[in-house]
Amino acid sequence: MDFLIFKAPILMVQASMDGILLGILFALIAYGMALQWGVMNIINIAQGDLVILGGYIAYSMYLAGIHPAYGVIVSPIIMFFVGWGLYKLVINKVVDRDLFISILATFGIAILMQQLMNFIFGADVVVAQSEFGTTMLFDNSVTLPNSKIFSAFISVLFAIALVIYMKKSKLGRAIRATAQNARAAKILGVDTEKVYAATFGINAALCGVAGALISITFTLHPYVGLPYTVRSFMIVIVAGLGNLPAVAVSGMGLGMFEEFADYILGTEFRIGSVFMLLVFILVYRRFKLSRKREYLK
Amino acid sequence: MKKNDLILYAAILIFGIAAPYILPTFKVQLSILCILIVLAMTWNIQGGEMGYNTFGNILFYGLGMYLCASVQVGMFFPLAEWTESGGEKTFEHTTIQFFEGMGVGLLVAAIVPMIIAGLIGYAILGLRGHYFAICTLGLGIAAGEIAGGIEIIGAGQGFTTPPFPKDIVDPEARGEFFYFLSFILLIATFAFIRWIYPSRFRLVLNAIRDNEDKAEAMGIQTMKYKIVGWMVSAFFCGFAGGIMGGLVGYIDSTDVAFDGREMGVFMVLMAILGGKGTLWGPVIGATLFHLFKEGFWTLFLGWQYVALGVLIVVIVIYFPEGLMGWLREKYPERFGEVIDEEDRKASVELK
Question: Could you tell me the pTM of the whole model?
Answer without folding.
Answer: 0.86
